[in-house]
Amino acid sequence: MNAPMKPGSKADRDALRHDMAAAACTVADISIEMRTRYRMRPREAWRHAHGWTLQETADRITRASLQRPGGAVAADASLVGKWEKWPAPSSRRPSLPVLLAMADAFGCRVTDVLDLDDRRNLPDTDLRVLTGHAEEPVTEPARATILSSTAQTLEPTGPDLVHLAADESATWAIWAEASNVGDIALEQLMAETRALASDYLISDPVGLFLRTRALRDRVFSLLEGHQYPRQSADLYVYAGYLCGLLAWMSSDLGQLRDAETQGRTAWLCAELSGHNDLRAWVLSTRSKVAFWDGRLREAITFARRGGSYRSSGSVTVLLACQEADAWSELGAGSEALAALARAEDARNAAHGEDEVGGIFACEPARQQNYAAAVQLRAGQPADALHAAEEALNLLSAQRVRAYGTEAQIHISQAAAHLSTGEAEGALEALTPVLALPPDHRLAPVARRLSELSAGIGRRPCATGVASVGLRAAIEEFCVNSASRQLALSPGEGCA
Prior knowledge:
The chain is mainly α. It has helices at 10-22, 27-38, 42-50, 54-65, 77-85, 96-106, 116-121, 124-131, 140-154, 158-177, 183-199, 205-223, 229-252, 256-273, 276-292, 296-307, 315-329, 333-349, 364-377, 381-396, 403-419, 423-434, 443-457, 465-479, 482-488.
């Protein structure tokens, strides 16, 4: 059962707007209902009646202001929020050009964006201008008349003009110097991002998804405010890694379409930040999603694009491994083995540390896991078995053992045994995989097990006791996988 919507929440406002629109209510009707129900200031109510964000409203106000001479307004999300809250503390009084542009953007009379508190606090000169046109619709002639009156009444001359210009510059400097985030807060956001990327290797994916989504929302909220350009760039980097992590998780939970959406948003953040390491990791994530979605050529393209960026750490190793994986699935053995060789070269040439780590790192054990899967498809079971055993040895020496990677290594080990007719050896290799709790049974693991089970059915030993028991155990594993549990759940909170 879904939890009730919080009164005044975005979901609650959206539902109200949709219901009233369906009942043929006008935007003005919706605005009045918003003001009454949620105790909003009139300008905020008009914005929510349209369903616009602060930044969307700022863009529309700026565009509307450019349609009239002398009325240009440079609006942004932070200013719109302050104009909406005026005359409350820490707000900013909207000038007449701002009010006119707001009315144009909202499609209402200029007096519709004011209430009694506004009128009590507006300068008398402003109020006289507005009151004189209270009954007129905002047409082009009315707009020109108001602007003319405003200019005649308010525009200073002589020394007053110079003083006003200086005051305006000082006011803007105060705004430009302010930031809604500090350097310590940025450090904390990166630390939390690193922790999530590391925890994902060993944690319940659904629980971690909720934590990652909450942190992403915090970063998005900060980006809607005002900060220094270098701080904005850092926030875009964190948002990109968090969306990339959500893409990885969505894919592991079998939600490939949602994973692709997260990947596109992560790529936008990478482009806005101009951060090459993030670009490479996002393309690695998108290659992974494309691979499991069966878009193998696209997976190769993403991997190659990622490898074209000058990046540090181990991302180039992973990208080469992913390319090899896709080539081997296509049956192009020579291309796959060549890509594996490039992965080894990239390992030897790697410099610097991975910025985030965890899922955004390619440790040697992870590299050998890819090598084992590729060699199996290339018809080299002995090499695959050797790579799998080496991967398990490397993994046992790591402080954090990624259960998803470990499971796939055991699957490659089992497949290598099956290729030589050793069903008992395959069952022994799969024992730790089949013992995974349901919330750790990720979609890639379940899919590889299903492929393994199908392969057993085509072998001469398919009717043997060990083979039949193995196929039954795999079927039970897949029925109780994390992706199937998610599909059968109400889905609260995982949007």
